[in-house]
Amino acid sequence: MTTCTLCDLDTPDPPITDPDVDGAFCCRGCLSVYRALGDVDPDAVDGEDIAAPADDADVPEDADTAFLSVDGMHCTACEAFVEATAADHDGVYAADASYATEMLKVDYDDSALDEADLPDLVKRMGYRAAVPDVGTDASEEERFGRDEIRTVLGLGSMMVVMTLYAFFLYPSYLGIYPDSFLRESATRLMVFLPMPIVSTFALFVVGFPILRGAYVSLSSGRPNMDVLIAGGALAAWGYSMLVVAAGGTEVYFDVSTAIVGVVTLGDFLETRVKRRAVGRLGDLDFGRVREVTVRDRAGTHAVDLESVEPGDEFVVKRGDRIPLDGEVVDGDAAVDESLLTGEAAPRAVSPGDDVVGGTVPTDGRLVVRAGPDATSTYDRLLGQLWNLQSSNTRAQRLADTVAALFVPFVLGLAALTAAGWFLYAGSVEQAVVTGVSVLVVSCPCSFGLATPLAVAAGVDRAAEDGIVVTHAPAIESLPDVDVVALDKTGTLTTGEMTVTDVAAADPERVLRYAAAVERDASHPIADATVDAAEARGIDDALPEPSEFTEHPRGAEAVVDGHRVLVGHPALFGDDWTLPAEYSEAIDAAVDAGGLASVVGWGGEVRGVLTVSDTPRDGWQDAVERFATASGGSDSSTDSGHRGSDRPVVVVTGDDQTSLAAFDDHPAIADVFTGVLPEAKAAVVERLRAKHGAVAFVGDGTNDAPALAAADLGIAFASGTELASEAADATIVDGGLAGVERLFDHAETVKERVRSNIVWALGYNVITLPLAVAGLINPLWAAVAMAGSSIIVVLNSSRD
């Protein structure tokens, strides 16, 4: 069997081909995408710009894969350390960690390792790993609680030490108190006994993640800001401990505790935003079927899903989720496929029809034969999402990039400064003080907070505007998006079925009879029919039906003495009279991209209801704004789209008939129809290769891999949970207009991140020479450092 040239899925036999296109395809959607975008090579795209999975070249096909949430990854160096630690075990083929999402993917040999033992792989230096809990937020609440406690302890320790300084040490240093005051026994007992204890607790307990981050960054050869933070804090603390032991009074415990307190607060703010990305991703497993009712010669009995073999038959009742892909061997039902396709209308299935795992029969009872692989489409989509979320898909923050050069420079400068002053003044104290001053004044609290505080403030402002950003780095990269890809159902449309037209000689009577029959039915078209009756004020006058019977494609009941049949035109056979005007109404409904619900009684069709998925209000204006929005690179100017600044494309599983209105919009560059759920991520990669950075807007579970694969995934809160969890941002209020507001917030964040970093660098350019010259002691260095941080905070939070 061959695989699809676009998405690598298995193709049918024979595969879908076209004489004008090289390759074999699994569906017409992939063929149309490749025809438009196949002249570009996704592999040629810069790896930093795409969501690429880990290198699986050495991973056997039969390897098991587990996904762990990791608590304690403090920086990008932790990411590399956790990866190396996990991979350095027998039975582990590969490990791929992501600091951004705090996830670890492990490919392993289940004969050598048990899944329950995998968290032990990274229990070094205080890291904690666990398989995400199913259906509970307990683990996330515990982790968040630990962060809150650490932040409170850090700030509390800083306040205790600063209070002692404010009442005792600062006045003495400024000459307000006599020199002998700090040497009195009572003062030393009240000040110099508790202060070292509190400072030691703050540095080594509260500041442990900082010290660990410094250690692992040096161990991995990627020095980061934690090295400077830890170096300055340790130097100030160590020197002060020696001074106290020698009976001196010139101590710098305020510097060490202030460093820990400020940085811990910044880490807490960043972590609070970051963990929204995958805080409840493990709960998505709750939608998976764990137990299956198998039918065999002994009858029906429940077994674990893993026990089902290809060809086994299993029973699915109304409302239960179909556990595996397969073929219907008995029963008729209307199957709700909205979880996977996003389409509101159910699909009627009968013996011989294929069904996919993750869909739900809304009526009837089915017996399904498991497919040749005994797998589920839902599980495959969920697996793709885990892969994309657990891999490192974003470039390192600008602060960490600069730190790779800045940190070694400052460390070397501090060492040279201390050595120079020792040789010049012959004083160990002067050498230590100037060296600490260099480290402290350059201690990048403001630099380290420049990005996360600006992002956190932007996220908060977006939340006030009805936009929830669940992956903080996305709001930084959004202004550079070059192409916007839109799903149709639930994105350009509301995803809800509504009656848009009633073609009948007596429309009110036809709608009243149809609503009376459909009132007890359980599918979206029935709901739309009843809602239409309610909207027209005739729901209170609905007659009471009797002898109600529901069919896979409709329903019937006796209403006012007439046996009324409502449903798909195929239900009305040759024994029914179909007037020409209603035949034309059926064709018109299909041509308009809707569905025809036929109503008849007495052997004659009496009317046709056109049921459609309603377009969102203002979708035309929104698409126009996406196409002409500022930002992005100039790559779109050569894309060949219809005269807009940024290409906008529609990617959907629908057929062409329901896309006419969108295809005709002048701002839409391309419409790709019939794209399978698994292929949407491949479409995103092709778009990226041709245009550049991709923003994907969708809301269905079938959109989840594409949302996660895109440089920016945007979902609507009205969509499925899987789509929202895969997205980088969720529009809670405002529809498509909210997407454009998200672009505005992202531009603001980008500008403030840049201004914060410029300030932090400029501050260091001015203060470092002063510290080297001995014109700033550690005390004033700490004051300058705190002032710099306050400026960053104010700049990030201003309206």
Automatic annotation (TrEMBL):
Q: Which InterPro entries match?
A: ATPase_P-typ_cyto_dom_N, ATPase_P-typ_P_site, ATPase_P-typ_TM_dom_sf, ATPase_P-typ_transduc_dom_A_sf, ATPase_P-type_domA, HAD-like_sf, HAD_sf, HMA_dom
- Enumerate the GO terms in the molecular function aspect: ATP binding; ATP hydrolysis activity; copper ion binding; P-type divalent copper transporter activity
Q: Which residues cross the membrane?
A: 152-170, 190-215, 227-245, 251-269, 402-424, 436-459, 757-773, 779-797
What Gene3D superfamilies does UniProt report for this protein, alphabetically?
3.30.70.100, Calcium-transporting ATPase, cytoplasmic domain N, Calcium-transporting ATPase, cytoplasmic transduction domain A, Calcium-transporting ATPase, transmembrane domain, HAD superfamily/HAD-like
The molecule here is called Heavy metal translocating P-type ATPase
Q: Which UniProt keywords apply?
A: ATP-binding, Membrane, Metal-binding, Nucleotide-binding, Translocase, Transmembrane, Transmembrane helix
The record's comment on protein family reads:
Belongs to the cation transport ATPase (P-type) (TC 3.A.3) family. Type IB subfamily.
Q: Transferase as a keyword?
A: no
| Pfam families listed in its UniProt record | E1-E2_ATPase (PF00122), HMA (PF00403), Hydrolase (PF00702)
- Please, which domain of life does this record's source organism belong to? Archaea
The cross-references to CDD domains, in alphabetical order and at most eight, read: HMA
An example GO CC term for this entry is:
membrane
- Report membrane topology: Multi-pass membrane protein
- What does the record list as GO biological process? copper ion homeostasis
Q: Where in the cell is it found?
A: Endomembrane system
Q: Could you tell me which species this protein originates from?
A: Halocalculus aciditolerans
Which residue ranges does the record assign to the HMA domain?
Answer: 64-130
